[in-house]
């Protein structure tokens, strides 16, 4: 399949939600069967582009590690590591940053939206984080990167930086390709015109992987639907119900048609309980495993330490070679 090496990262910001699970983590788990060289990074350097409480950040790194393991990331098959433990990420990021001009970063859509949402002008770190993202990927000479649609512009920058480096210093980096996830964005339960997001102030809008069954039922019961009581699938006109059908299908492995067929005769109020139950069933073993692992802090740290050693074995020679090419 031409996939030689995959890199992907996730920020350690709290317990992942249903959107993160379906849009990222679940596909990472299945990629382990398709490629024998995969790196999954808890990208903590990216987290401090916006203010972080040190104790909360530290805990979030362990929480994210526990969740990834519980979801099926296998540290024997993949290299699971914490970004800041491999200093070559920062080193390569500096070198790549010297190959890109300010307007190229200014024009990235996420800089505009994120910067506009802040009360003060954003930090230099927030501005240059797509360069660090490029370094994350290129440091391992990755050939493929699983991404959501929102990251397409950033992947163009990564490819661009690989090509610029190669042009200036000689063919060195493979130009990585995106592996687009097929999953539609999971929508907010409270405002199905928006995506489910961890930063949503409405706590009822977002299902977390470790939510209790009671919380999951309650959140679905409070989900916004519409005035039609039948369960039908029409993502353009019935956003709330269609989002639930998508979630139901993804959680059970059924097709949308099968879900609709099964749910004929249910009204949306009863259907909410059916979808909640599908989510509860799917997340129950993951939740149990997260709870078991979250008290095994030494084990989690060991996994990250071994992962960082393996990642560094790959990163070091690449970084050394880059520095030689640059003339250091
Ligand atoms: P959030 O949007 O909650 O802040 P992140 O931006 O940290 O989440 O995203 C982590 C991963 O989860 C990314 O790969 C992103 O594409 C995916 N993701 C985030 N929200 C959703 C969603 N609502 N539906 C599908 N995938 C999502
Ligand atoms: Na986000």
TrEMBL record:
Keywords: Aminoacyl-tRNA synthetase, ATP-binding, Ligase, Nucleotide-binding, Protein biosynthesis
EC number from the UniProt entry: 6.1.1.2
Annotated InterPro entries: aa-tRNA-synth_I_CS, aa-tRNA-synth_Ic, Rossmann-like_a/b/a_fold, Trp-tRNA-ligase, Trp-tRNA-ligase_bac-type, Trp-tRNA_synthetase
Molecular function, one GO term: ATP binding
Any Pfam family matching the protein: tRNA-synt_1b
Catalytic reaction list: tRNA(Trp) + L-tryptophan + ATP = L-tryptophyl-tRNA(Trp) + AMP + diphosphate + H(+)
PROSITE patterns (alphabetical): AA_TRNA_LIGASE_I
Cellular localization per UniProt: Mitochondrion matrix
Highest taxon in the source lineage: Eukaryota
Gene3D superfamilies xref list: HUPs, Tyrosyl-Transfer RNA Synthetase
GO cellular component, one term: mitochondrial matrix
Enzyme class per UniProt: ligase
GO biological process: mitochondrial tryptophanyl-tRNA aminoacylation; vasculogenesis
CDD domains: TrpRS_core
Primary location group: mitochondrion
Sequence similarity: Belongs to the class-I aminoacyl-tRNA synthetase family.
Function, in words: Catalyzes the attachment of tryptophan to tRNA(Trp) in a two-step reaction: tryptophan is first activated by ATP to form Trp-AMP and then transferred to the acceptor end of tRNA(Trp).
Protein name per UniProt: Tryptophan--tRNA ligase, mitochondrial
């Amino acid at each position: 399949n031409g996939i030689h090496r995959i890199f992907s990262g996730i920020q350690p910001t709290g317990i992942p939600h249903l959107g993160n699970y379906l849009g990222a983590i679940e596909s990472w788990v299945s990629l382990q069967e398709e490629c024998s060289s995969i790196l999954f990074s808890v990208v903590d350097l990216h987290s401090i582009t916006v203010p972080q409480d040190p104790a909360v950040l530290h805990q979030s790194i362990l929480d994210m590690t526990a969740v990834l393991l519980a979801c099926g990331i296998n540290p024997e098959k993949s290299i699971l590591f914490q970004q800041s433990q491999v200093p070559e990420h920062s080193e390569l990021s500096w070198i790549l940053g010297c190959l890109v001009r300010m307007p190229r970063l200014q024009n990235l859509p996420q800089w505009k939206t994120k910067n506009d949402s802040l009360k003060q002008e954003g930090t230099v770190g927030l501005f240059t984080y797509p360069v660090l993202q490029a370094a994350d990927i290129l440091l391992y000479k990755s050939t493929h990167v699983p991404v959501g649609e929102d990251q397409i512009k950033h992947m163009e920058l990564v490819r661009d930086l690989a090509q610029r480096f190669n042009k200036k210093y000689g063919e060195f980096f493979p130009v990585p390709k995106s592996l687009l996830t097929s999953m539609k964005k999971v929508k907010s339960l409270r405002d199905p015109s928006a995506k489910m997001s961890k930063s949503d102030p409405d706590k009822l809008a977002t299902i977390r992987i470790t939510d209790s069954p009671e919380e999951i039922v309650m959140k679905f019961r409070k989900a916004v639907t519409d005035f039609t009581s039948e369960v039908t699938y029409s993502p353009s006109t019935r956003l709330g119900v269609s989002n639930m059908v998508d979630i139901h299908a993804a959680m059970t492995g059924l097709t949308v048609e099968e879900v609709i067929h099964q749910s004929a005769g249910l009204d949306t109020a009863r259907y909410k309980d059916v979808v909640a139950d599908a989510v509860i069933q799917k997340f129950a073993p993951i939740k149990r495993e997260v709870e078991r692992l979250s008290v095994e802090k030494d084990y989690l740290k060991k996994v990250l330490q071994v992962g960082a050693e393996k990642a560094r074995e790959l990163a070091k020679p690449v970084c050394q070679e880059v520095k030689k090419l640059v003339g250091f």
